Amino acid sequence: MIRTTFTVPGDAGPLTGLRWGGDDPDRSTVLLVHGTGFCASVWNAVALDLVDDFDVVALDRRGHGGSVKPDDAYDFADFADDIETLIDAFDLDGAFGLGHSAGGTDLLLAAARRPGAFERLVVIEPTLMDPDDPGRDLASSPGPDQAELENMSRRRATFPSRQAALDRLDGRGIFTGWRRELLEAYVADAFEERPDGEVALCCSPMLEGAMLRRIAAAMNGTHPAGTFERVREISCPTLIATTEHSNPSYARMADVALRLVPGAFLEHLPGVGHAVPQVAPETVAALARRFWTSPGVTAPVPVDGPP
């Protein structure tokens, strides 16, 4: 299947991404939205699994890949604006949204604003806060503190070559267990060449820090609560997925999503961690396909353990 690139104009600047399939009126579109620090091509394996049944679109979120990189416009509402831009650009009506981490939050907020754009949503460990009780359960499952946040935003940004970046990242940190071809895709598309011949992260530590400040505020219950109020207005079936080996704060936020999103379902994925779309893409694709065809087969289960 041929993969193509796209660029669409956004309010803050151009948004780029990848597309598999084509403009087939008889096929639904699935929109894939990555998490912080990644890029559209980390969805390659999931996209190739789904393309027999869908037209597949994956976005470089603002600040990532080839998309616009403003100095500091990285609040949750800014990313939701970009999803609305794609809804209009691709004329999405009854589409399927599949999002990971903060990318899942983008989809939740956009679906609340634009009823009818999505027929189903699957969001894997989204980042959000309870607007009714911001401090709920923080003592038992806190998000990152300031030191952790600073450490996350200080990862190495430049390498002598893409091969050097690949060798350094392979098997380390969040990249542990990644499919090799997906790590190679990440290094190919999440880094850009500099005039001196080195390669640098498209999503620089400064930009990632601007994003992580908002995410940490939501995880720690200090973000403005009004941001998440409209999630209650989502009208399409929504599946919230959690994983066994993630920070406990993700399970807490999944519980928030279950309370806020009307009629939401939960599925717990044992044996995997937060980067499940890159570690076990077949699991994510199978989950998505099943929820698209039979949303009622997944029943809510406790978030603190597998079903």
Written account of the structure:
The protein is an alpha/beta fold and 307 residues long. The protein has a single domain (3-143, 215-297), classed as 3-Layer(aba) Sandwich (Rossmann fold), CATH 3.40.50.1820. It is 34% helix and 18% strand. It has an eight-stranded mixed sheet, with helices on both faces. Strand 5, helix 3 and strand 6 (118-124) form a beta-alpha-beta unit. Helix 2 (76-89) packs across helix 3 (102-113). The protein starts with a strand and ends in a 14-residue tail after the last helix.
Provide the fold topology.
Blueprint: E1 3-9, E2 14-20, E3 29-33, H1 44-50, E4 55-59, H2 76-89, E5 95-100, H3 102-113, E6 118-124, H4 146-152, E7 158-159, H5 162-169, H6 180-189, E8 191-193, E9 199-201, H7 205-219, E10 238-243, H8 248-260, E11 265-269, H9 276-279, H10 281-293
Helix pairs in contact: 1-10, 2-3, 4-7, 5-6
